[in-house]
Structure formats: C-alpha cells, structure tokens
Design a protein that fits this description.
Blueprint lengths: L3 H23 L2 E2 H8 L3 H13 L3 E9 L5 E7 L4 E8 L3 E8 L4 E8 L6 H18 L6 E9 L2 E2 L6 E3 L11 H9 L3 E5 H13 L6 E7 L3 E7 L2 E3 L31 H4 L1 H11 L6 H7 L8 H9 L3 H25 L3 E5 L6 H11 L11 E3 L6 H16 L6
Parallel strand pairs: 4-7, 7-10, 11-14, 14-15
Antiparallel strand pairs: 1-3, 2-3, 4-5, 5-6, 8-9, 11-12, 12-13
Helix pairs in contact: 2-3, 4-5, 6-13, 8-11, 9-10, 10-11, 11-12
Bound molecules: zinc ion (ZN).
C-alpha cells in the first residue's frame, strides 16, 4: 500500500528528475526559467536546487543575467563532468568494460574476449576483475562513480534485471545478472538489451528538444533495431521489439540465419552477408573490378571493397549491394506504414559508404506516397556509441530516478 509519505518521495524524485533532465537537454537555465518550464513554485525550485547543489549534481556557473525587471538570475548547470558510470557490454564471443562521464567522455574502454556460451557466473567475475584493474590504472578523474550499466544481446526478463536469453553469448537462461554484478562490486546495476542501449545513448547525446518517436536500426554483424516513443523504448509483450533483422524476406532457398531460420533480412542485407555473397561469386568474369582490387583472393574481400567495386561499376558487386539496399529499404518502408516514426536513425559503418547510402535512399523513395516518405537519417554518433552506451545506461537511469542510486 502506498502511503502519503511514499507519494511525497515519489513527487520529490519526479521534480528532481525533471530539473536534471531539463538541464541536460537545454544546458544552463536559471531557477526562474526552470520553475516556469516545469510548473514548479519558486519556493519548491529554490529547495530542489539547494539540494542538488549540496549533493554535487548541479552548480551555479557564475554567469548572471538580468530578468528584464532588474532582478538577477544565476545560471544553473549540470555537474556532468564530475559524474561517471561503469559500463559492461556483452556480445557473442566478446565483451567490453568501460567508464563514461555523464557528458559522454569515455574514461576507459577495454575489449575482453569470451568463449561462445561463456559460463555466466565466471564471466561476471572476470569482467568485474577487468573493471577493478581499469579503475585502479585509469589516470583520469571519475568524480562521483554512480553505478554500472549492462548492455547485453538478447532478451531481457520481465523484472528488467535478468538475462532471459543471450543467444549463446552467456551459458545461462534466466540469469540474474544485475544481482550478480551487485554482489561482486557492491554497486547499483541496471540492464538493457544492447540495441536499446545504443538507442538510449543516441537520444541522450542528441539532446533533441522535440520528443518524437525514433526507429533506430543498427547494421553491424547483424541487423538489430529498437523503437522509442518519447522517452520510452517499446519492448513488446515478449520483449522482442523490434527484431527487424529476422523478418523473412526470401521465401524459399534462402541462406541459413544464426536464429535457426533461413532467408532473414540479415542474411542478405547485413555487411557480413554482402561480403559473403561477393566472396561466393568472386571471379574475373562475374566481378571483374573486385577481382582486380583483391588480386583474386577471396580472403581479401571486405564489405567496403564490395561497395567500392559497385560504385566503380562492377556488375556482380552492384547486384549484391543493390539487393541488400532494396531489401533493407523494403523493411524500412513497412516500418513507416506500420509505426509512423518521427525519424529513422541508421547506425553502422555501412551507412557512411556513399554507394550504399545513395542506393538505400533511392530505394526508400520507390512506391511510397508523400505522406509516407521514409524519414531517414544517419546517426550523428556513428562508430562512437558502442563505447558509451553501457555506461550512459546508468547515468540515464540515475537522472530519471531524480539523481538517486536507490
Ligand atoms: Zn534470422
């Protein structure tokens, strides 16, 4: 049963969260402007600001402006260079440990190789050891170290603290990973699916004023996606929103996918699929330019070279790259008709290649009316988020929780 005391604490937490998130989004603001923005009384605002200053979460930056009526307004700012969080990211065959300041600065980042189906408890112990070593040898100041954010591939349990399935990254099902990290480190820990963590970091670092819906697609080894409406990331009833990489696109005779099916989008549109398809047909006649670029060596074929060859007019390379762009564009058009996102943010090195990007943009225009134009954009943080996302998970949780770890 909730008591009046709980409600008061809840309201206080909510108001503190609103102040912290507004200072993050807009930069410096005076007490008066914050109070007007958030609908707080001047007295309430003064009290919250005093508390947050006392706790070292915000500071008065010394700049003073007149409010027009001759009264002075002191600007408040987040002390985000004096707050940091640890990050742990767990993928297939490798993990990473990191520390990230609340302003997005990476303090350390280390990749740790893991066996496939890594034993869960031992892996937590191993990663905690790496964290401890890195913290001890890091020359930069952490300021206040808030907690740990974990980003893991796969499906998160309903409690938000358990890894239900990591698709062979960890050798465990329903593994209470937050409890395990908390037991080893004594630090408060939060958990998210890895693509959702990337989306959270993208939204946090973008500081967009307008809260809109974002469909975020990451094209790395595989293809993953997540969908946010305002500040909330939708998970779906089975916590599998949005597995776009495993939409079946080839009805019969498609290549097998690691998910166990065949003919998934990922098997023709991921960078690995583009490379493998080109390796399979590499020859002087079918892919003359790629053949020249690689001296006929299959092992020298990279996704970037296939796209370079396509750009140079290599018919075989073009066929593979165009089919990938077309399949991905078709999937994104379905997203627009189904979900109507404010923007589709594409994350991954492949989107930086001019040939792939122009083919994708051209294909998304085919067959749609103006009301369903695909709002494509490249991530502003391409290549950077893997290092930041896990640590920022905790910082975002901390701000949303009113600047409290509990
Ligand atoms: Zn699949």
């Amino acid at each position: 049963m909730r008591t009046e005391g709980d409600n008061m604490i809840g309201l206080k937490r909510q108001n503190r969260a609103a102040v912290l998130l507004s200072l993050h989004r807009y930069g410096g603001l005076s007490r008066k402007r914050l109070a007007a923005l958030l609908g707080l009384t001047p007295a309430a605002m003064t009290k919250i600001a005093a508390e947050l200053i006392e706790e070292g979460l915000i500071y008065e930056d010394g700049s003073v402006r007149s409010d027009g009526a001759g009264r002075r307004e002191i600007t408040l700012r987040l002390a985000d260079q004096k707050l940091s969080a640890l990050g742990v990211s767990i993928g297939l065959g490798k993990a990473s440990v990191s520390a990230v300041r609340a302003d997005g600065t990476v303090l350390f980042f280390e990749t740790v190789p893991l066996p496939i189906r890594a034993p869960a408890e031992q892996t937590v112990q191993l990663l905690c050891n790496h964290l401890t070593e890195q913290i001890q040898s890091c020359k930069q100041s952490f300021g206040k170290l808030l907690g740990i954010g974990i980003a893991v591939r796969g499906v998160i349990g309903e409690d938000g603290r358990t890894v239900k399935s990591s698709y062979d990254a960890l050798d465990a099902e329903d593994f209470p990973i937050c409890d395990s990290f908390e037991k080893h480190t004594g630090r408060s820990t939060v958990l998210s699916n890895n693509v959702r963590a990337l989306l959270s970091a993208e939204a946090y670092l973008s500081r967009d004023e307008k809260s809109e819906s974002i469909f975020f697609l990451r094209c790395g080894t595989g293809i993953g996606a997540a969908f946010a409406v305002g500040d909330e990331i939708l998970e779906g009833d089975r916590r599998q929103c949005a597995e776009i990489g495993h939409i079946p696109v080839i009805r019969r005779g498609g290549k097998p996918c690691h998910c166990g099916k065949s003919g998934c989008l990922e098997t023709i549109a991921s960078p690995a699929a583009i490379r493998e398809d080109a390796q399979a047909i590499l020859s002087e006649t079918e892919t003359p330019l790629l053949w020249q670029m690689t001296n006929g060596d299959r092992h020298a074929v990279t996704t970037g070279l296939v796209l370079d060859a396509a750009r140079g007019g290599d018919a075989g390379a073009m066929k593979i790259a165009d089919r990938a762009a077309e399949a991905l564009a078709d999937a994104l058009k379905s997203v627009v008709y189904l979900m109507d996102p404010g923007k589709i943010v594409l994350y991954g090195e492949i989107f930086e290649h001019p040939y792939f990007w122009s083919r994708l943009a051209a294909e998304t225009d085919v067959g749609v009316d103006a009301a369903h134009a695909v709002p494509l954009e490249k991530s502003r943080f391409n290549g950077q988020l893997e290092r930041k996302a896990a640590g920022l998970l905790y910082t975002i949780h901390f701000y949303r929780n009113g600047g409290m770890t509990e």
